[in-house]
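Consider the following assembly input.
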Amino acid sequence: SQKNDFKENIHSNGSCQQLPQTIIIGVRKGGTRALLEMLSLHPDIAAAESEVHFFDWEDHYGNGLQWYINQMPFSYPHQITVEKTPAYFTSPKVPERVYNMNQSMRLLLILRDPSERVLSDYTQVFYNHMQKHKPYPSIEQFLIKDGELNVDYKAINRSLYYIHMQNWLKYFSLDHIHIVDGDKLIKDPFPEIEKVERFLKLSPQINASNFYFNKTKGFYCLRDSGRERCLHESKGRAHPQVDTRLLEKLHEYFHEPNKKFFELVGRTFDWHS
Ligand code: A3P
């Protein structure tokens, strides 16, 4: 059961921990860390460092809002607190729970080509196993079953954006959900971040000069008051080579779901299919 009595912990310097007014809900491997780091360039943003998993993990949710607020960074009243937990987007119970906490929550959703996201998802789990020196099957072993595309593969289900989006739209209208184009954020982050600033009604303080392309990394990195830094090496990894025909099958499979998603959100994306 939810315990709803909580206090905003106050620091002696006047800062306090606040519930998030905006949440990056996903999608897993969509570029959620990049989005959070880039948004954090804004002085009015206070971001929770790690993924909180409040709304999707029963043991966390059962701890109530006081626990949730305790996970938040100290911030000043004019700042917007943000947390990101990419698993929220695909967890059926989460939309209602977020709605029950704050009906005017502003949601950020970063999406990426669904097929590319599947490869990225596989790569993430592959590296998790490698780190623990555990073997992990090839991507083909997940993607193919009885000679056909294995649509039961979890990573494929997570890329069926319209199914998950429908759950959110039961509780939040589209004007509460800003969709960031994750493919564009990779190629040219600044315009996407400007749109987020506008959605959150932040003053325009992030500049094009906050981003520079790092040839070694092959991605944009951040420049913040003279200091330059790239995202962690686990972000922007090479994906496995997949047979062209299998890849085409994957693209084809997402054709209808993508169309449904575009209709649902009244907007199209430059995805394969
Ligand atoms: P890959 O590592 O598969 O390329 P998330 O943070 O949600 O797990 O998403 C990770 C993805 O963010 C990476 O997936 C990468 O493509 C993407 N990304 C977007 N902008 C990036 C950047 N500036 N630096 C590194 N990765 C970035």
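The CA atoms of residues 26 and 32 lie 6 Å apart. Ask yourself how this observation constrains the way the partners meet.
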